[in-house]
Amino acid sequence: MNHTRILGIGAYRASRVVPNSEIVERIDSSDEWVQQRSGIRERRWATEDETVRSMGLAASRQALERAGVDARQIDCVIVATVSHFMQTPAVATLIAHDLGADQPAAFDISAACAGFSHGIALASDLVRGGSARHVLVVGVERLSEITDPDDRGSAFIFADGAGAAVVGPSETPGIGPVVWGSDGEQYDLIRQREDWREVIVAEQPRMPHLTMQGAAVFRWASFTMAKVGLQALDRFGIGPDDLDCFVPHQANMRITDAMARAMKLPETVRVARDIATQGNTSAASIPLALDRMYLDGEARSGDRALLIAFGAGLAYAAQVVVLP
Ligand code: COA
User: Fold this and answer.
1) What is the pTM assigned to this prediction?
2) Stretch 101-112: mean pLDDT, rounded?
């Protein structure tokens, strides 16, 4: 079998529902402004015991169950995250152990909001290359912890949760060629404000918050990513009219709309809008958005979905997948 596909998708939403009203006063904003500029009505934030490890594990268990794959069949676990604060070892090793997997290869990747699509691309190539038969890809974040509640440009955006996918062999193409890249010249547009050393020597040590130049990110994402999306369709051998679902990273509802317009997606394409009630969960946002589409009856097995992930780095990755 020369091809690969996603066999199952799992999700875990952090349990605390945080409406805009809880955030806006501190940043001199309003529920109306946040909804209009970002599409976010409320977001999910983790409680103390909802950790990157526990949320990643919950999403992984669901993905395995839905895939009908036993944890012992997993040869490799890839976790995409920027909010696991133990720099080493990788949280992937813990999740693999918690699942009862048979000591698979396990490592974390740092590609920020583009992490899930990077993981899917790696997993697909590992299976096609014969290095693994089943790969578990997890995207998990606890961004509430590194969000600055006083930053007007980002306090309302970031959120917590996990998503996972099992990738395995297929007789037909189920994961298209990835279109990916990065632009280190724009490294400063979204980043951790301080590195760990700067945090530790600061007079008042605190978590290193995320910072973002929102308008510049907005322009880059809306236009550059639309071109990347069209390339991913082309590499799968289809056009916008052949697509069933559009599942971009849930960064901002207006970015989603701008990309869909720029790609001239027909109205028949169902568009992921999980951000409205989940917020932006970086590496977890695409599988969470897919899960929501299944729950709402907007995604069905066999649908062709365009995934586009983008964010800090500026890193991006896009591929067409056939939904399990
Ligand atoms: N509440 C109310 N007003 C705000 C505000 C807030 N939270 N933040 C900024 N403003 C004001 C500004 O002061 C400015 O006022 P002025 O025109 O009087 O100077 C005005 O709103 C516009 O500011 P700007 O920063 O240009 O806003 P914007 O339209 O670009 O929207 C974002 C801000 C953050 C919503 C938007 O830039 C964005 O979503 N960018 C993409 C971010 C993203 O998706 N990041 C994740 C990628 S992984």
Assistant:
1) 0.96
2) 97
Distance from Cα 215 to the centre of ligand 1, integer Å: 7
The ligand 1 site (C-beta within 6 Å) comprises: 27, 29, 33, 37-38, 113, 152-153, 157, 190, 212, 214-215, 217-218, 251-252, 255, 280, 311
CA count, 13 A, side-chain hemisphere, 100: 6
Which atom of ligand 1 sits closest to the CA of residue 27? 7
The pLDDT value recorded for residue 44 is 98
Find all residues with CB under 8 Å of 116, minimum gap 6, and list them: 80, 137, 139, 163, 165, 283, 284, 285, 286, 287, 307, 309
Clarify whether 280 is annotated catalytic: yes
State the pairing for strand pair 190-192/210-212. antiparallel
Ligand 1 midpoint to CA 260 (Å):
21
Ligand 1: centre distance to CA 217 (Å): 11
Residues in the chain: 324
| Contacts of 283 by beta carbon, 8 Å cutoff, 6+ apart | 80, 81, 82, 111, 112, 113, 114, 115, 116, 139, 140, 141, 309
- The model's pLDDT over 163-174, given as tens digits with 9 standing for 90+, comes to 999 999 999 999
Q: Is 252 a catalytic residue?
A: no
∠ at Cα 105 (63, 81), nearest 5°? 60
Q: Which of these, 225, 248, 277, lies nearest to 19 by C-alpha position?
A: 277
Burial label, 194 (beta-carbon count in 10 A; 0-12, 13-18, 19+): middle
